[in-house]
Fold this protein.
Amino acid sequence: GDSVTQMEGPVTLSEEAFLTINCTYTATGYPSLFWYVQYPGEGLQLLLKATKADDKGSNKGFEATYRKETTSFHLEKGSVQVSDSAVYFCALSEFSEKLVFGKGTKLTVNP
Amino acid sequence: DADVTQTPRNRITKTGKRIMLECSQTKGHDRMYWYRQDPGLGLRLIYYSFDVKDINKGEISDGYSVSRQAQAKFSLSLESAIPNQTALYFCATSDSAGGLHSPLHFGNGTRLTVT
């Protein structure tokens, strides 16, 4: 079945550092791919998405490119801020139209 | 915003008790979901409903039941709570018009502790 694997955390960075959170997926067809963010005490929010190969999703300085050849959707940001501290989830949606989530990666950004 | 509202936010209950978690939404979405979040396990789907007359089991439905009382309301029940149901529970909605591109919209969660 469909599955998502993302890098284990926690990840700790200093402010203005470069961020990469790796995500790879297994699917039989052409899924839609998503990154969600969960701030402390809140529910998940959509951060960005991509619906076909080579699409780049972007939002709030975060980017991720749908790479079908490597079945990857890595999340990047050039300069993180303390306010980016959160848990990040990679997810996919395919035939069943239900989202399948990775286990989440906790990011802490120190001033 | 409070487009997806979950009540209560926190609940402590004893083993064997029946409890209900409620979810209501003002987004006008037809699809609703219940997820459970446990540390290190991510989110796992308990039940989902694609419209009022459609209820489906997710990957971990044992020990849970649901009711879709209206398009805007979807409740989750634990018939006889047990300690390993201690978790953070999320309700979510989506719009079928977007198909598999539709993102989920989450409530702020209910933290349930079973002692």
In short: The radius of gyration of chain B is 13 Å.
